[in-house]
Amino acid sequence: MQGRTRVKRLPANQRDKLLRGETRMPLSTLCQDIFSEDLPHLTGSGLIDGDPDGACIAAPATLSVQPWYDAAEQVMISLHDESGNPAPLDPRGILQRQIAALADLGLRATVAVELEFYLFDSSTRTSGVPAVPGRLAIAGEPNALQLYDARVMDRIEPVLDTIHRWSAELGIPAETSIAEFGPGQFEINLRHRDDVLQAADEAQLFRRIVDRAAFDAGLLASFMAKPYTEHGGSGQHVHLSLSDERGRNVFDAGQAPACEALGQARLAAPLAHALAGLLDTMPEAQLLFAPHGNSYRRLLPDSFAPHRVDWGLDHRAAAIRLPVTDGRDARLEHRVAGADANSYLVLAALLAGVRRGLERGCVPGAPPLQVGQESTALLLTHDWLLASERFHSSTAMRRLLGERVVEVFGAVKRHEALDVLRRVGSVDWQIWLPRV
User: Fold this and answer.
1) Quick one: how many helices (H) and strands (E) in the chain?
2) Which run of H or of E encompasses 427?
3) How far from 25 is each of 14, 19, 51, CA to CA, in Å?
4) 141-178 residue pLDDT tens
5) Cα–Cα distance, 310 to 169 (Å, whole number)
6) What is the pLDDT of residue 260?
7) How many domains does the structure of the chain reveal?
8) Rounded to an integer, what distance in angstroms lies between the CA atom of residue 39 and that of residue 370?
9) Are residues 395 and 268 in the same domain?
10) Which alpha helices (H) appear in 86-136, and where do they start and end?
11) Torsion of CA 105, 313, 196, 273, to 10 degrees
């Protein structure tokens, strides 16, 4: 649930046993909070139900040699319950159910995931305070902005080269690399995939690659949403389009009937419906896009991160951007999720929102955000606890994603939010202790 990779190592002579589905792991592994605690009183899983095992069902297409340790192989698994189906809380299974529901409508999604991350000096591990790697002190202070700076790319090239090389060995389509705004911040885009589950697997494996490549270089990598107060956060932008059973992009305004209800915005009706569904579900699904307390420091006004439930034509300040509406590349870009969010759950929420819009045939209630225009759309919440409550009480999310998913994820995140909110720390002491 937390988006962290959980691992079980087996000796090589148990490889076939694993591929036959005879390896087991506790189902409670799927319920743990950010501190790796089971919380059986909230999840109903753990010692309270005897802590039963689930079967590890391997995805053979993901079987590969580990690039950073070629004496070992790795394979992605789903945990299946006693009925032989993916456990209700298994992230791969949650996404698979949304893919199947979309297929029932005769549609297939194509997605591309863009992930931003920061590299820190190794001293961060012991100090607990993020520090910019010394090699990135390009011109004066090491915390200067570095957007597209060639010198930054040159000095970090060995790490980026390792990331790209290992990605290629695992078949992960890592493409463009850029130095982002923040010091030590980078973005690497993964190419479009018409297999959404494969795209999610690749995003998860990509995180491991970045983490290990940084470690081997004496650095620390993090996909934390907002590690610095004064610098931009790290997002997980998702580009999404839909094709029908004949392989045609139904978002292409030149191929599909146009929606006439949006004034000057000429959109294919399926794109308008999908857009409306995503906007409609965004407030209640926000917890999946921003699952941690730190996530909400990224979603604030006056930044490149969205903070309202709005959309725009090639407008990067909007929550949903439509970069192209004509031709085979017609698609939407969902910009709300942070890099810290679980990619399986992010993609599941997006497919669920798209499906809701298509089934209801609705259109966005407001026109697109224009250049220079101040958005007046509904605010996304900046309150982690409120986001948890909205998700947990959402009948739409329960219907779209499943009762168990919403019940457990909402309860665990509410527990985490209350834990953090109860803590009095340095900000309280610096601001209010001497003044009130």
Assistant:
1) 13, 15
2) helix 426-431
3) 15, 14, 10
4) 655 667 777 888 888 899 999 999 999 999 999 988 88
5) 39
6) 63
7) 2
8) 46
9) yes
10) 91-103, 124-127
11) -20
Query: Amino acid identity, residue 41?
Result: H
Amino acid at 380: L
Q: Strand runs (DSSP E) across 180-235, as ranges? A: 185-190, 219-222
CB-based contacts of 415: which residues, under 8 Å, 6+ apart? 33, 39, 42
Closest C-alpha among 395, 393, 388, 391 to residue 413: 388
| pLDDT score, position 142 | 58
Question: Do 274 and 330 contact (CB within 8 A), yes or no?
Answer: no
Whole-number Å distance between alpha carbons of 310 and 276: 10
Say whether 259 sits in a helix, a strand or coil.
Answer: strand
Q: Which of 13, 22, 33, 28 is nearest to 292 (CA)?
A: 33
Backbone phi, psi, residue 78, to 5°: -115, 145
* DSSP code, position 25: E
Residues 275, 282: Cα–Cα separation, whole Å = 11
Domain-ending residue, one of 87, 122, 153 = 87
Per-residue pLDDT reduced to its tens digit, 53-105: 999 999 999 999 999 999 999 999 999 998 899 999 999 999 999 999 999 99
Residues 282 and 154 in one domain: yes
Q: Could you give the CA distance from residue 152 to residue 137 in angstroms, rounded to a whole number? A: 9
The per-residue pLDDT for 261 is: 58
Same domain, 398 and 421: yes
| 186 neighbors 177 (Cβ within 8 angstroms) | yes
Residue 194: both structure tokens together = 């018409």
Residues 209, 163 contacting (CB under 8 angstroms): yes
